[in-house]
Amino acid sequence: MSHDNTKSLNVVIGGINIPVKVTPSEEMEVEEVVEKINTKLKEIQMRYPGKDLAEALAMTLLAISFERETERKNYPDQEELKNDFDQVDELLEKLLK
Q: Quick one: which of 8, 12, 38, 68 has the most CB atoms within 10 Å?
């Protein structure tokens, strides 16, 4: 990641502000990940109301990681396909500049 092409982005996860440096092409993906984390966190907090934020965040991390690992095992070529799309995206960005 080139430092001259980054911007600061403040994201909020579970009420915690987190400053992140992203490239323009990463910004939407980061926002989608943050939304997914917050959605899963809210589900866990509703399901287990007595858990404190740290426990709920740990449970969220475990749940999302488990989902991702299951997807990776069920669709092993998905990562390769994503890399191919990333390469196409990079080429399109270069062509449009």
A: 38
pLDDT in tens, 62-80: 999 999 888 777 776 766 7
- For the chain, which residues make up each domain, given as ranges? 25-96
Backbone angles phi, psi at 27, to 5 degrees: -55, -50
**DSSP assignment string, 6-40:** -EEEEEEETTEEEEEEE-HHHHHHHHHHHHHHHHH
**How many residues comprise the chain?**
97
Tokens of 31: 């926002």
Q: How much is the pTM? A: 0.69
- Cα–Cα–Cα angle for 32, 39, 47, rounded to 5 degrees: 160
Tokens of 18: 């987190």
- Give the span between the Cα atoms of 39 and 42, in whole angstroms: 5
**Cα dihedral 28→30→33→39 (10° resolution):** -80
